[in-house]
Amino acid sequence: MIVLGLIMTxxxxxxxxxxxxxxxGLAVAIExxxxxxLALVSSxxxxxxxxxxxxxxxxxxxxxxxxxxxxxVGLAWSRGSGLGRACFIVASKRLGKALKDGVGLALAMxxxxxxxxxxxxxxxxxxxxxxxxxxxxxxALALFSGAVPFLFEFLALKRMTMTTFGILxxxxxxxxxxxxxxxxxxxxxxxxxxxVAVITVAALGATVLEHRNKDATPQxx
Length: 221
What we know:
Shape: globular
């Protein structure tokens, strides 16, 4: 529980430090290479490796073409975020076996909050004291960008292998792009639509493969 809380703190901190230095699309792409690398390492079937490679190709296609020199510190932070993502999957899988439902995650997030508060708590409270209207936005952001997604990921890991999860998590940036098209009138390039199709194929393939393997596993009564 303590380890998972520390991992969540480090992963989130690395990601925001990366965002301060390199483009968002690149930071997200590098971060999601962590779970995909874990999926490849933990795979035991050839088709798993194929789906990992397909999903990784889609993530690369989603990455905007960035010219010029990139901040090496920002790249290092994003790699740290990817490593944290992979560690989150491993720690969540183990903690999910020890505690029922989302209790383990709630305790781990409490640990993360306690660790982060000395560094960010006083500054945050001073900002909110000056503008209480921000409180609703802050609470909504904490709920929908942190608590709810982490809970769904935690519960999903209790029911599937790390390999399948590592592939399926590549759907997250796809979903973000599609929401941008629908809700924000963003325009997705041909390259982007190809990436969406590629990642979707990998996710569907991994899901079907896992379902078939479960059906093929003999049940002991």
